[in-house]
Amino acid sequence: MSMHGPAADLPIVLQDVSYRVREIAILDRISLWLVPGAPTVLIGPNGAGKTTLLQLAMGLIEPTGGRVKWGGRPHVPPLRRAFVRQRPTMLRRSAAANVEYALASAAVTRSTWPARTAELLSLVGLDGIGPRPARRLSGGEQQRLALARALARDPEVLFLDEPTASLDPAATKAIEDVIRAVAARGIKVVMSTHDLGEARRLAGEIVLMHRGCVVESGPAAEFFAGPKTSEGRRFIAGELLV
Questions:
Q1: Are strands 81-84 and 157-161 parallel, antiparallel or unpaired?
Q2: Distance from C-alpha of 32 to C-alpha of 13, rounded to nearest angstrom
Q3: Which residue in 86, 88, 106, 130 has the fewest CB atoms around it within 10 Å?
Q4: Rg of the chain, C-alpha, whole Å
Protein backbone atom coordinates (compact mmCIF):
# COMPACT_ATOMS: atom_id res chain seq x y z
CA MET A 1 0.00 0.00 0.00
CA SER A 2 1.35 3.36 -0.96
CA MET A 3 2.11 6.38 1.15
CA HIS A 4 0.40 9.47 -0.12
CA GLY A 5 1.73 12.93 -0.61
CA PRO A 6 -0.72 15.80 -0.34
CA ALA A 7 -4.08 14.22 -1.12
CA ALA A 8 -5.78 15.54 -4.23
CA ASP A 9 -9.19 15.44 -2.52
CA LEU A 10 -7.97 17.34 0.56
CA PRO A 11 -8.86 19.66 2.03
CA ILE A 12 -12.53 18.77 1.95
CA VAL A 13 -14.39 21.99 2.57
CA LEU A 14 -18.05 22.23 3.54
CA GLN A 15 -19.26 25.77 2.94
CA ASP A 16 -22.50 26.73 4.71
CA VAL A 17 -23.87 23.24 4.00
CA SER A 18 -27.44 22.26 4.83
CA TYR A 19 -29.30 19.04 4.20
CA ARG A 20 -33.06 18.96 4.47
CA VAL A 21 -35.55 16.15 4.02
CA ARG A 22 -38.89 17.80 3.28
CA GLU A 23 -39.11 20.42 6.02
CA ILE A 24 -36.73 18.71 8.45
CA ALA A 25 -33.20 20.13 8.71
CA ILE A 26 -30.82 17.18 9.17
CA LEU A 27 -27.81 19.51 8.84
CA ASP A 28 -28.07 23.26 9.24
CA ARG A 29 -25.50 25.61 7.66
CA ILE A 30 -22.35 23.69 8.53
CA SER A 31 -18.94 25.05 7.60
CA LEU A 32 -16.02 22.69 8.16
CA TRP A 33 -12.53 21.99 6.82
CA LEU A 34 -11.20 18.42 6.76
CA VAL A 35 -7.44 18.58 6.30
CA PRO A 36 -4.58 16.06 6.07
CA GLY A 37 -3.25 14.69 9.34
CA ALA A 38 -4.47 12.69 12.31
CA PRO A 39 -8.05 11.36 12.39
CA THR A 40 -10.98 13.74 12.60
CA VAL A 41 -13.59 12.28 14.94
CA LEU A 42 -17.24 13.36 14.93
CA ILE A 43 -18.97 13.05 18.30
CA GLY A 44 -22.41 13.96 19.56
CA PRO A 45 -25.71 12.36 20.52
CA ASN A 46 -27.71 10.09 18.24
CA GLY A 47 -29.54 12.15 15.64
CA ALA A 48 -26.94 14.93 15.67
CA GLY A 49 -26.26 14.50 11.94
CA LYS A 50 -22.91 12.69 12.07
CA THR A 51 -23.75 10.04 9.46
CA THR A 52 -25.26 12.60 7.10
CA LEU A 53 -22.16 14.78 7.37
CA LEU A 54 -19.94 11.78 6.53
CA GLN A 55 -22.12 10.97 3.50
CA LEU A 56 -21.92 14.56 2.26
CA ALA A 57 -18.15 14.70 2.68
CA MET A 58 -17.83 11.38 0.86
CA GLY A 59 -20.04 12.62 -1.97
CA LEU A 60 -22.75 9.98 -1.53
CA ILE A 61 -25.43 12.65 -1.23
CA GLU A 62 -25.60 16.29 -2.29
CA PRO A 63 -26.40 19.18 0.03
CA THR A 64 -29.71 20.97 -0.33
CA GLY A 65 -27.89 24.20 0.52
CA GLY A 66 -24.27 25.36 0.41
CA ARG A 67 -21.56 23.36 -1.31
CA VAL A 68 -18.81 20.82 -0.78
CA LYS A 69 -15.38 21.04 -2.43
CA TRP A 70 -12.65 18.43 -2.63
CA GLY A 71 -9.17 19.88 -3.09
CA GLY A 72 -10.78 23.14 -4.19
CA ARG A 73 -12.98 21.45 -6.80
CA PRO A 74 -16.71 20.66 -6.78
CA HIS A 75 -18.22 17.42 -8.10
CA VAL A 76 -15.09 15.24 -7.77
CA PRO A 77 -15.86 11.53 -8.32
CA PRO A 78 -15.13 9.47 -5.16
CA LEU A 79 -12.39 7.41 -6.78
CA ARG A 80 -9.92 7.96 -3.93
CA ARG A 81 -12.42 8.11 -1.10
CA ALA A 82 -13.89 5.10 0.70
CA PHE A 83 -16.78 4.70 3.13
CA VAL A 84 -17.41 1.92 5.66
CA ARG A 85 -20.94 1.80 7.06
CA GLN A 86 -21.81 0.94 10.61
CA ARG A 87 -23.18 -2.45 9.54
CA PRO A 88 -21.39 -3.40 6.31
CA THR A 89 -22.87 -6.10 4.11
CA MET A 90 -20.68 -9.11 3.38
CA LEU A 91 -20.85 -10.73 -0.05
CA ARG A 92 -21.88 -14.37 0.01
CA ARG A 93 -18.38 -15.62 -0.73
CA SER A 94 -15.04 -16.07 1.01
CA ALA A 95 -13.23 -13.29 2.86
CA ALA A 96 -10.55 -13.24 0.16
CA ALA A 97 -13.17 -13.08 -2.59
CA ASN A 98 -14.77 -10.10 -0.86
CA VAL A 99 -11.45 -8.26 -1.09
CA GLU A 100 -10.93 -9.40 -4.69
CA TYR A 101 -14.33 -8.01 -5.61
CA ALA A 102 -13.26 -4.64 -4.21
CA LEU A 103 -9.97 -4.82 -6.13
CA ALA A 104 -11.88 -5.55 -9.34
CA SER A 105 -14.20 -2.60 -8.68
CA ALA A 106 -11.13 -0.40 -8.27
CA ALA A 107 -9.74 -1.67 -11.61
CA VAL A 108 -6.66 -3.19 -9.98
CA THR A 109 -4.68 -5.48 -12.30
CA ARG A 110 -5.91 -9.03 -11.78
CA SER A 111 -2.43 -10.56 -11.61
CA THR A 112 -1.74 -8.55 -8.44
CA TRP A 113 -4.89 -9.68 -6.62
CA PRO A 114 -3.41 -12.57 -4.59
CA ALA A 115 -0.56 -10.46 -3.20
CA ARG A 116 -2.75 -7.41 -2.61
CA THR A 117 -5.46 -9.49 -0.95
CA ALA A 118 -2.93 -11.06 1.40
CA GLU A 119 -1.43 -7.65 2.18
CA LEU A 120 -4.82 -6.10 2.93
CA LEU A 121 -5.99 -8.99 5.10
CA SER A 122 -2.71 -8.82 7.00
CA LEU A 123 -3.04 -5.07 7.52
CA VAL A 124 -6.42 -5.56 9.22
CA GLY A 125 -5.22 -8.52 11.28
CA LEU A 126 -7.01 -11.25 9.33
CA ASP A 127 -4.02 -13.32 8.20
CA GLY A 128 -5.04 -16.82 7.15
CA ILE A 129 -8.75 -16.07 7.16
CA GLY A 130 -9.09 -15.68 3.38
CA PRO A 131 -10.77 -19.04 2.63
CA ARG A 132 -13.46 -18.66 5.31
CA PRO A 133 -17.00 -17.61 4.34
CA ALA A 134 -17.28 -13.90 5.06
CA ARG A 135 -20.78 -14.18 6.52
CA ARG A 136 -19.58 -16.68 9.12
CA LEU A 137 -16.99 -14.33 10.56
CA SER A 138 -17.62 -12.61 13.89
CA GLY A 139 -18.95 -9.05 13.90
CA GLY A 140 -15.51 -7.64 14.62
CA GLU A 141 -13.91 -9.75 11.88
CA GLN A 142 -16.55 -8.63 9.40
CA GLN A 143 -15.86 -5.00 10.28
CA ARG A 144 -12.14 -5.51 9.70
CA LEU A 145 -12.89 -7.24 6.40
CA ALA A 146 -15.00 -4.23 5.42
CA LEU A 147 -11.97 -2.05 6.19
CA ALA A 148 -9.80 -4.26 3.96
CA ARG A 149 -12.32 -3.89 1.13
CA ALA A 150 -12.35 -0.11 1.55
CA LEU A 151 -8.55 0.02 1.55
CA ALA A 152 -8.51 -1.95 -1.72
CA ARG A 153 -9.37 1.39 -3.37
CA ASP A 154 -6.06 2.82 -2.07
CA PRO A 155 -8.04 5.78 -0.73
CA GLU A 156 -6.73 9.16 0.24
CA VAL A 157 -9.64 9.62 2.64
CA LEU A 158 -11.40 6.88 4.62
CA PHE A 159 -14.81 7.60 6.16
CA LEU A 160 -15.95 5.34 9.01
CA ASP A 161 -19.44 5.48 10.48
CA GLU A 162 -19.41 4.19 14.09
CA PRO A 163 -16.85 1.47 13.23
CA THR A 164 -16.89 -0.15 16.69
CA ALA A 165 -20.59 0.10 17.52
CA SER A 166 -21.84 -3.01 19.36
CA LEU A 167 -18.37 -4.63 19.42
CA ASP A 168 -16.78 -6.07 22.56
CA PRO A 169 -13.58 -4.50 23.97
CA ALA A 170 -11.22 -6.95 22.21
CA ALA A 171 -12.88 -6.40 18.82
CA THR A 172 -12.93 -2.65 19.44
CA LYS A 173 -9.20 -2.62 20.17
CA ALA A 174 -8.53 -4.59 16.95
CA ILE A 175 -10.46 -2.01 14.90
CA GLU A 176 -8.72 0.90 16.63
CA ASP A 177 -5.34 -0.69 15.89
CA VAL A 178 -6.28 -0.84 12.20
CA ILE A 179 -7.35 2.81 12.25
CA ARG A 180 -3.99 3.82 13.75
CA ALA A 181 -2.12 1.76 11.14
CA VAL A 182 -4.14 3.33 8.33
CA ALA A 183 -3.56 6.86 9.64
CA ALA A 184 0.17 6.14 9.98
CA ARG A 185 0.25 5.38 6.25
CA GLY A 186 -0.92 8.89 5.42
CA ILE A 187 -4.58 8.11 4.82
CA LYS A 188 -6.93 10.70 6.28
CA VAL A 189 -9.50 9.05 8.55
CA VAL A 190 -12.80 10.82 9.22
CA MET A 191 -15.01 8.85 11.59
CA SER A 192 -17.98 9.10 13.89
CA THR A 193 -18.22 7.46 17.29
CA HIS A 194 -20.54 7.39 20.27
CA ASP A 195 -17.61 6.37 22.49
CA LEU A 196 -15.81 9.28 24.15
CA GLY A 197 -12.98 6.98 25.23
CA GLU A 198 -12.42 6.01 21.62
CA ALA A 199 -12.46 9.65 20.58
CA ARG A 200 -9.79 10.42 23.19
CA ARG A 201 -7.64 7.51 21.98
CA LEU A 202 -7.82 8.20 18.24
CA ALA A 203 -8.70 11.80 17.46
CA GLY A 204 -6.35 14.51 16.28
CA GLU A 205 -9.35 16.77 15.75
CA ILE A 206 -12.77 16.69 17.39
CA VAL A 207 -16.02 17.87 15.81
CA LEU A 208 -18.92 18.02 18.29
CA MET A 209 -22.33 17.97 16.65
CA HIS A 210 -25.78 18.63 18.10
CA ARG A 211 -29.13 19.07 16.36
CA GLY A 212 -27.57 19.19 12.91
CA CYS A 213 -24.99 21.84 13.78
CA VAL A 214 -21.29 21.85 14.57
CA VAL A 215 -21.20 23.39 18.03
CA GLU A 216 -17.45 23.04 18.60
CA SER A 217 -14.41 21.81 16.67
CA GLY A 218 -10.67 21.90 17.14
CA PRO A 219 -7.63 19.93 18.31
CA ALA A 220 -8.67 16.94 20.39
CA ALA A 221 -6.22 17.68 23.22
CA GLU A 222 -7.62 21.20 23.62
CA PHE A 223 -11.22 19.99 23.48
CA PHE A 224 -10.79 17.36 26.18
CA ALA A 225 -8.69 19.69 28.35
CA GLY A 226 -11.31 22.42 28.29
CA PRO A 227 -14.31 22.57 25.95
CA LYS A 228 -15.18 26.11 24.91
CA THR A 229 -18.95 25.57 24.78
CA SER A 230 -21.54 24.60 27.37
CA GLU A 231 -22.58 21.70 25.11
CA GLY A 232 -19.00 20.45 25.01
CA ARG A 233 -18.61 20.67 28.78
CA ARG A 234 -21.90 18.87 29.34
CA PHE A 235 -21.15 16.19 26.77
CA ILE A 236 -17.74 15.17 28.12
CA ALA A 237 -19.20 15.26 31.65
CA GLY A 238 -21.61 12.54 30.55
CA GLU A 239 -24.74 14.67 30.52
CA LEU A 240 -27.39 14.11 27.87
CA LEU A 241 -27.68 16.69 25.09
CA VAL A 242 -31.33 16.92 24.11
A1: parallel
A2: 6
A3: 86
A4: 18
State which CATH number among 3.30.70.330, 1.10.10.60, 3.40.50.150, 3.40.50.300 fits the domain covering 12-236. 3.40.50.300
Cα 117 from chain centre:
21
Q: How many residues does the chain have?
A: 242
- The per-residue pLDDT for range 94-115, each reduced to its tens digit, is 999 999 999 999 999 999 999 9
In terms of Cα–Cα distance, which of 189, 119, 180 is closest to 157? 189
**Is residue 51 within 8 Å of residue 74, measured between CB atoms?**
no
What is the CA 122 to chain-centroid distance, rounded? 20
The Cα 214–Cα 19 span in angstroms is: 13
Helices 139-151 and 95-105: crossing angle in degrees, nearest 10, is: 30
pLDDT at 34: 97
